[in-house]
Amino acid sequence: MKTQIILILAVVVGLLAAVLTNSYLSSKDDEVVRMKRSLQKKYTEINVLCVKRDIPSGTVLSREDIGVISAFENAVGDHAILENDYHYLLGRKTVNKLQKAKPIFWSDIEGGNPETRGLARDIKTGRRAISINVSGAASVSGMVRPNDHVDVLGTFSFPSKTAPDKMELVTLTMLQDVLVLATGRDTAKSQLIGETRGGTYTSVTLEVTPREAEMLVFAEQIKGRLSLALRNPDDVNYEKSLPRVDFQKIQDEIEELNKYRQSQLLHKVQ
User: Fold this and answer.
1) How far is CA 233 from CA 6, 107, 142, 146, 186, in A?
2) Do the beta carbons of residue 173 and residue 239 sit within 8 Å?
3) pTM of the predicted protein model
4) Distance CA 147, CA 133 (A)
5) What are 185-220's pLDDT values in tens digits?
6) Residues 112, 172: one domain?
7) CATH number of the domain that residue 83 is part of
8) By the number of CB atoms within 10 A of the CB, which of 117, 144, 152, 225 ranks highest?
9) How far is the CA of 181 from the CAs of 63, 132, 144, 216, 235, in angstroms?
10) Distance between CA atoms of 207 and 209, rounded to whole angstroms?
């Protein structure tokens, strides 16, 4: 009996030792995997741009100047210029002396990284970016987004034509088919790289001509209320001679407008 007990204890101790040993080895394997991943990440090689010869500052880079080398990612960080960004360097001027076969950094190039230079580079020549204040309803319940096209409508308090000593509200379409550059601080570029702030916004930035910019600024200064009408991106139609709308205009034409909507837009037979 005593011998059997000893044998059972020996088996139990052996099994326990095997379990503990296996657990220890598994934890070591996991540790080795983690170390391997860490080393791989630390010593991952990437292709970055360099210059083929020593270049003084103030040099405009050409195809013949630029080469490619491999470098450890952790050694060059996020500021070295990657091989895929080759086209961004052509025609750009250096602000530092560059050594042959050494990585080129964005800080070495006049103007830096073009993807982080803000909104100014996205504005077409001859145009201006101007922000207008809009509420949620005035921006189509906040549905207007960068790269959308909108019409800008203004509502103002003007002296009445029939009673000059009185004021009346008038609404008119000020601009048609205007490109939206930003909503709040979100731009098309920030959306592309996933850096949008989202949520509500109280201003919209539009791309306009200098004369249109003056008109919008004046409209806000006289406390006009500006609203945006969202357009289909493929709709480039321009409505000619849109009238000013006041209460009398609505009274006179509301029935005719509804007939037009039914017959022309909804294709309903009268």
Assistant:
1) 86, 38, 17, 12, 19
2) yes
3) 0.56
4) 18
5) 888 776 665 666 666 788 899 999 999 999 999 998
6) no
7) 3.90.1210.10
8) 152
9) 33, 12, 11, 16, 18
10) 7
